[in-house]
Amino acid sequence: MSEFILSHTALKAEAQRLGFSVCGCAPAAPVEDWRCRQWEHYLANHHHAGMAYLESHLDKRLNPRLLVDGAQTVVSLALNYYQGDACTFGSYQFARYAVGRDYHEVVKERLAALLQFVRQVSDGRADGRAFCDTAPVDEHYWAWRCGLGWLGRNTQLIVPRAGSHFFLGELILTAPVDHYDAPMSSHCGNCLRCVKACPTGALSPADGLDARRCLSYLTIEHRGPFPPELPHPPLGNCIYGCDRCIAACPHNQSAPLTEVQDFYPRPQLTTMTAHEWQNLTSEQFSRIFTHSAVKRTKLEGLLRNIKCASFLIE
Ligand code: SF4
Ligand code: SF4
Questions:
Q1: Is the pLDDT of residue 210 over 60?
Q2: Does residue 191 line the site of ligand 2, with CB under 6 A?
Protein backbone atom coordinates (compact mmCIF):
# COMPACT_ATOMS: atom_id res chain seq x y z
CA MET A 1 0.00 0.00 0.00
CA SER A 2 1.39 3.45 -0.93
CA GLU A 3 2.34 5.87 1.84
CA PHE A 4 -0.42 8.27 2.75
CA ILE A 5 0.57 11.95 2.82
CA LEU A 6 -1.79 14.24 4.71
CA SER A 7 -2.79 17.53 3.12
CA HIS A 8 -1.68 20.45 5.30
CA THR A 9 -4.44 22.60 3.80
CA ALA A 10 -7.18 20.06 4.52
CA LEU A 11 -5.92 19.52 8.07
CA LYS A 12 -5.88 23.26 8.79
CA ALA A 13 -9.35 23.72 7.31
CA GLU A 14 -10.76 20.96 9.51
CA ALA A 15 -8.99 22.37 12.59
CA GLN A 16 -10.53 25.75 11.86
CA ARG A 17 -13.96 24.18 11.39
CA LEU A 18 -13.56 22.60 14.84
CA GLY A 19 -12.88 26.04 16.33
CA PHE A 20 -9.11 26.01 16.71
CA SER A 21 -7.62 29.45 16.11
CA VAL A 22 -4.23 28.29 14.89
CA CYS A 23 -2.85 25.00 13.63
CA GLY A 24 0.67 24.10 12.47
CA CYS A 25 2.77 21.05 11.69
CA ALA A 26 6.38 20.00 12.25
CA PRO A 27 8.33 16.79 11.67
CA ALA A 28 8.25 14.53 14.74
CA ALA A 29 11.95 14.85 15.55
CA PRO A 30 13.73 15.18 18.91
CA VAL A 31 13.50 18.72 20.34
CA GLU A 32 16.39 21.02 19.48
CA ASP A 33 19.54 21.22 21.62
CA TRP A 34 18.78 24.67 23.03
CA ARG A 35 15.50 23.39 24.43
CA CYS A 36 17.16 20.30 25.94
CA ARG A 37 19.62 22.62 27.70
CA GLN A 38 16.74 24.79 28.96
CA TRP A 39 15.06 21.74 30.49
CA GLU A 40 18.33 20.56 32.07
CA HIS A 41 18.92 24.02 33.56
CA TYR A 42 15.32 24.27 34.82
CA LEU A 43 15.41 20.91 36.56
CA ALA A 44 19.00 21.19 37.88
CA ASN A 45 18.13 24.51 39.52
CA HIS A 46 14.89 23.15 40.99
CA HIS A 47 12.87 25.79 39.18
CA HIS A 48 10.10 23.18 38.85
CA ALA A 49 9.51 23.40 42.64
CA GLY A 50 7.33 20.49 43.82
CA MET A 51 6.31 19.37 40.32
CA ALA A 52 8.34 16.15 40.53
CA TYR A 53 6.40 14.69 37.62
CA LEU A 54 8.42 16.98 35.35
CA GLU A 55 11.53 14.94 36.19
CA SER A 56 9.87 11.75 34.97
CA HIS A 57 9.89 10.67 31.33
CA LEU A 58 12.24 13.47 30.28
CA ASP A 59 13.34 11.26 27.39
CA LYS A 60 9.75 11.23 26.07
CA ARG A 61 9.35 14.97 26.68
CA LEU A 62 12.36 15.55 24.48
CA ASN A 63 11.42 13.10 21.75
CA PRO A 64 7.84 12.62 20.48
CA ARG A 65 8.88 9.44 18.66
CA LEU A 66 9.04 7.77 22.07
CA LEU A 67 5.38 8.60 22.68
CA VAL A 68 3.91 7.24 19.45
CA ASP A 69 5.33 4.32 17.46
CA GLY A 70 6.08 5.42 13.92
CA ALA A 71 5.50 9.11 14.68
CA GLN A 72 6.15 11.34 11.68
CA THR A 73 4.32 14.58 12.38
CA VAL A 74 3.48 16.76 15.37
CA VAL A 75 0.40 18.95 14.89
CA SER A 76 0.04 21.80 17.38
CA LEU A 77 -3.31 23.50 17.91
CA ALA A 78 -4.40 26.55 19.90
CA LEU A 79 -7.90 27.25 21.23
CA ASN A 80 -8.72 30.80 22.34
CA TYR A 81 -10.14 31.23 25.86
CA TYR A 82 -10.14 35.04 26.20
CA GLN A 83 -13.48 36.21 27.67
CA GLY A 84 -12.94 39.97 27.90
CA ASP A 85 -14.21 41.00 31.32
CA ALA A 86 -12.05 40.48 34.43
CA CYS A 87 -12.82 37.20 36.13
CA THR A 88 -13.68 38.63 39.54
CA PHE A 89 -16.53 37.15 41.57
CA GLY A 90 -17.47 38.35 45.06
CA SER A 91 -14.29 40.50 45.12
CA TYR A 92 -12.02 37.51 44.43
CA GLN A 93 -10.28 36.98 41.13
CA PHE A 94 -9.50 33.77 39.25
CA ALA A 95 -7.04 33.17 36.42
CA ARG A 96 -8.97 33.47 33.19
CA TYR A 97 -8.28 29.97 32.01
CA ALA A 98 -9.97 28.44 35.04
CA VAL A 99 -13.42 30.03 35.15
CA GLY A 100 -15.17 27.89 32.56
CA ARG A 101 -15.38 24.19 31.83
CA ASP A 102 -12.19 22.21 32.34
CA TYR A 103 -10.06 22.88 29.26
CA HIS A 104 -8.75 19.32 29.21
CA GLU A 105 -12.26 18.12 28.37
CA VAL A 106 -13.01 20.82 25.80
CA VAL A 107 -9.69 20.60 23.95
CA LYS A 108 -9.60 16.80 24.00
CA GLU A 109 -13.06 16.54 22.44
CA ARG A 110 -11.90 18.67 19.52
CA LEU A 111 -8.57 16.87 19.20
CA ALA A 112 -10.40 13.54 19.10
CA ALA A 113 -12.60 14.86 16.27
CA LEU A 114 -9.53 16.02 14.33
CA LEU A 115 -7.81 12.67 14.82
CA GLN A 116 -10.94 10.94 13.56
CA PHE A 117 -10.81 13.19 10.49
CA VAL A 118 -7.21 12.08 9.82
CA ARG A 119 -8.21 8.42 10.13
CA GLN A 120 -11.10 8.92 7.73
CA VAL A 121 -9.26 10.82 5.00
CA SER A 122 -6.41 8.32 5.15
CA ASP A 123 -8.70 5.27 5.00
CA GLY A 124 -7.07 4.08 8.18
CA ARG A 125 -3.50 4.40 6.86
CA ALA A 126 -2.70 7.19 9.34
CA ASP A 127 -3.20 7.09 13.08
CA GLY A 128 -1.85 8.85 16.12
CA ARG A 129 -2.56 10.10 19.62
CA ALA A 130 -4.07 13.28 21.03
CA PHE A 131 -2.52 15.18 23.95
CA CYS A 132 -3.64 18.07 26.10
CA ASP A 133 -1.48 18.61 29.15
CA THR A 134 -1.84 14.96 30.14
CA ALA A 135 1.42 13.38 28.96
CA PRO A 136 5.07 14.42 28.75
CA VAL A 137 4.75 16.55 25.62
CA ASP A 138 6.64 19.86 25.55
CA GLU A 139 3.58 21.74 24.33
CA HIS A 140 5.06 25.24 24.28
CA TYR A 141 8.08 24.06 22.31
CA TRP A 142 5.88 22.31 19.75
CA ALA A 143 3.58 25.30 19.41
CA TRP A 144 6.68 27.36 18.58
CA ARG A 145 8.22 24.69 16.35
CA CYS A 146 4.94 24.33 14.43
CA GLY A 147 4.92 28.07 13.69
CA LEU A 148 1.95 29.10 15.86
CA GLY A 149 3.84 31.98 17.45
CA TRP A 150 6.90 32.73 19.55
CA LEU A 151 7.77 31.91 23.15
CA GLY A 152 7.51 35.14 25.13
CA ARG A 153 9.66 36.18 28.06
CA ASN A 154 6.65 35.32 30.25
CA THR A 155 7.02 31.69 29.01
CA GLN A 156 3.69 31.89 27.15
CA LEU A 157 3.13 31.20 23.48
CA ILE A 158 2.34 34.51 21.78
CA VAL A 159 0.29 34.30 18.60
CA PRO A 160 0.79 37.33 16.33
CA ARG A 161 -2.18 39.75 16.53
CA ALA A 162 -3.97 37.43 18.97
CA GLY A 163 -1.82 37.24 22.12
CA SER A 164 -1.45 34.36 24.54
CA HIS A 165 -4.87 33.39 25.87
CA PHE A 166 -4.74 29.97 24.27
CA PHE A 167 -5.03 26.39 25.38
CA LEU A 168 -2.68 24.12 23.51
CA GLY A 169 -3.17 20.58 22.27
CA GLU A 170 -1.23 18.24 20.03
CA LEU A 171 -1.72 15.34 17.69
CA ILE A 172 1.27 13.09 17.09
CA LEU A 173 0.57 11.34 13.79
CA THR A 174 2.07 8.37 11.99
CA ALA A 175 1.71 10.12 8.60
CA PRO A 176 3.76 12.89 7.01
CA VAL A 177 2.09 16.06 5.76
CA ASP A 178 2.76 17.71 2.41
CA HIS A 179 4.02 20.93 3.99
CA TYR A 180 5.65 21.76 7.33
CA ASP A 181 5.53 25.15 9.05
CA ALA A 182 8.59 27.18 10.02
CA PRO A 183 9.19 28.40 13.58
CA MET A 184 8.82 32.11 14.33
CA SER A 185 11.49 34.36 15.83
CA SER A 186 10.71 36.28 19.00
CA HIS A 187 9.12 39.73 18.81
CA CYS A 188 9.73 40.48 22.51
CA GLY A 189 12.68 42.73 21.68
CA ASN A 190 13.77 44.81 24.66
CA CYS A 191 10.37 44.65 26.34
CA LEU A 192 10.41 43.69 30.01
CA ARG A 193 6.80 44.46 30.94
CA CYS A 194 6.01 40.94 32.09
CA VAL A 195 9.19 40.75 34.19
CA LYS A 196 8.37 44.08 35.84
CA ALA A 197 4.74 43.11 36.43
CA CYS A 198 5.65 39.95 38.33
CA PRO A 199 5.17 40.68 42.06
CA THR A 200 7.49 37.93 43.30
CA GLY A 201 10.46 38.12 40.95
CA ALA A 202 9.62 34.71 39.51
CA LEU A 203 10.52 35.77 35.96
CA SER A 204 14.08 36.44 34.95
CA PRO A 205 15.18 37.45 31.43
CA ALA A 206 18.22 35.18 31.76
CA ASP A 207 16.77 32.28 33.71
CA GLY A 208 13.12 32.11 32.70
CA LEU A 209 10.49 31.09 35.25
CA ASP A 210 11.25 29.94 38.78
CA ALA A 211 8.05 28.15 39.85
CA ARG A 212 9.11 28.29 43.51
CA ARG A 213 8.23 32.00 43.47
CA CYS A 214 5.35 31.90 40.99
CA LEU A 215 1.88 32.58 42.39
CA SER A 216 0.33 30.45 39.71
CA TYR A 217 2.29 27.46 40.98
CA LEU A 218 1.90 28.35 44.65
CA THR A 219 -1.87 28.84 44.55
CA ILE A 220 -2.62 25.79 42.41
CA GLU A 221 0.03 23.08 42.57
CA HIS A 222 1.64 23.71 45.94
CA ARG A 223 0.17 21.82 48.92
CA GLY A 224 0.25 22.99 52.53
CA PRO A 225 1.35 26.37 53.91
CA PHE A 226 3.18 28.78 51.63
CA PRO A 227 7.00 28.51 51.84
CA PRO A 228 8.59 30.49 54.72
CA GLU A 229 10.44 32.81 52.32
CA LEU A 230 7.00 33.86 51.02
CA PRO A 231 4.89 33.74 54.21
CA HIS A 232 2.44 36.29 52.83
CA PRO A 233 2.58 35.93 49.05
CA PRO A 234 1.26 39.06 47.37
CA LEU A 235 -1.83 37.39 45.97
CA GLY A 236 -3.77 40.64 45.69
CA ASN A 237 -7.36 39.50 45.30
CA CYS A 238 -6.41 36.55 43.10
CA ILE A 239 -7.19 33.22 44.73
CA TYR A 240 -6.52 30.84 41.86
CA GLY A 241 -3.55 31.42 39.57
CA CYS A 242 -2.10 34.77 38.54
CA ASP A 243 -2.50 36.48 35.19
CA ARG A 244 -0.27 39.49 35.80
CA CYS A 245 2.54 38.59 33.39
CA ILE A 246 -0.05 37.78 30.73
CA ALA A 247 -2.11 40.93 31.31
CA ALA A 248 1.04 43.09 31.13
CA CYS A 249 1.99 41.87 27.66
CA PRO A 250 1.28 44.42 24.92
CA HIS A 251 0.40 41.59 22.54
CA ASN A 252 -2.65 40.84 24.67
CA GLN A 253 -4.10 44.33 24.47
CA SER A 254 -6.31 43.57 21.50
CA ALA A 255 -6.97 39.88 22.09
CA PRO A 256 -10.05 38.59 20.24
CA LEU A 257 -12.92 37.15 22.29
CA THR A 258 -13.36 33.39 22.26
CA GLU A 259 -16.36 31.89 20.54
CA VAL A 260 -16.19 28.85 22.83
CA GLN A 261 -19.05 29.34 25.28
CA ASP A 262 -17.58 26.66 27.57
CA PHE A 263 -14.78 29.07 28.52
CA TYR A 264 -17.00 31.87 29.81
CA PRO A 265 -17.51 32.02 33.61
CA ARG A 266 -19.80 29.33 34.95
CA PRO A 267 -23.00 30.83 36.39
CA GLN A 268 -22.31 29.32 39.84
CA LEU A 269 -19.35 31.73 40.21
CA THR A 270 -21.22 34.89 39.38
CA THR A 271 -23.52 34.87 42.42
CA MET A 272 -20.82 34.24 45.04
CA THR A 273 -20.18 36.91 47.68
CA ALA A 274 -16.93 37.54 49.55
CA HIS A 275 -18.57 36.17 52.69
CA GLU A 276 -19.54 32.95 50.89
CA TRP A 277 -16.02 32.47 49.54
CA GLN A 278 -14.58 32.90 53.01
CA ASN A 279 -16.96 30.25 54.38
CA LEU A 280 -16.84 27.89 51.43
CA THR A 281 -18.01 24.37 52.30
CA SER A 282 -17.04 21.08 50.78
CA GLU A 283 -20.51 20.73 49.25
CA GLN A 284 -20.32 24.19 47.63
CA PHE A 285 -16.79 23.50 46.34
CA SER A 286 -17.94 20.28 44.65
CA ARG A 287 -21.04 21.91 43.18
CA ILE A 288 -19.41 25.11 41.94
CA PHE A 289 -16.33 23.44 40.47
CA THR A 290 -17.74 20.33 38.87
CA HIS A 291 -15.93 19.83 35.53
CA SER A 292 -13.57 22.66 36.45
CA ALA A 293 -9.77 22.94 36.48
CA VAL A 294 -10.08 24.63 39.90
CA LYS A 295 -10.61 21.23 41.52
CA ARG A 296 -6.85 20.75 41.15
CA THR A 297 -6.11 22.94 44.15
CA LYS A 298 -8.69 21.08 46.31
CA LEU A 299 -10.87 22.79 48.89
CA GLU A 300 -8.00 23.11 51.38
CA GLY A 301 -5.83 24.91 48.84
CA LEU A 302 -8.56 27.33 47.78
CA LEU A 303 -9.41 28.16 51.42
CA ARG A 304 -5.71 28.75 52.12
CA ASN A 305 -5.56 31.17 49.18
CA ILE A 306 -8.78 32.92 50.23
CA LYS A 307 -7.40 33.40 53.75
CA CYS A 308 -4.15 34.81 52.39
CA ALA A 309 -5.94 37.23 50.05
CA SER A 310 -8.70 38.23 52.46
CA PHE A 311 -6.90 41.02 54.30
CA LEU A 312 -7.28 43.07 51.12
CA ILE A 313 -10.96 42.28 50.71
CA GLU A 314 -12.30 43.45 54.05
S1 SF4 B 1 2.03 34.06 36.99
FE2 SF4 B 1 2.28 35.83 38.40
S3 SF4 B 1 3.83 35.19 39.88
FE4 SF4 B 1 3.95 33.76 38.14
S5 SF4 B 1 5.51 34.62 36.81
FE6 SF4 B 1 3.56 35.45 36.09
S7 SF4 B 1 3.31 37.41 37.20
FE8 SF4 B 1 4.91 36.23 38.24
S1 SF4 C 1 5.42 41.50 28.09
FE2 SF4 C 1 7.00 42.01 26.59
S3 SF4 C 1 8.75 40.65 27.11
FE4 SF4 C 1 6.94 39.85 28.16
S5 SF4 C 1 6.17 38.30 26.77
FE6 SF4 C 1 5.06 40.20 26.28
S7 SF4 C 1 6.27 41.18 24.63
FE8 SF4 C 1 7.55 39.57 25.56
A1: yes
A2: yes
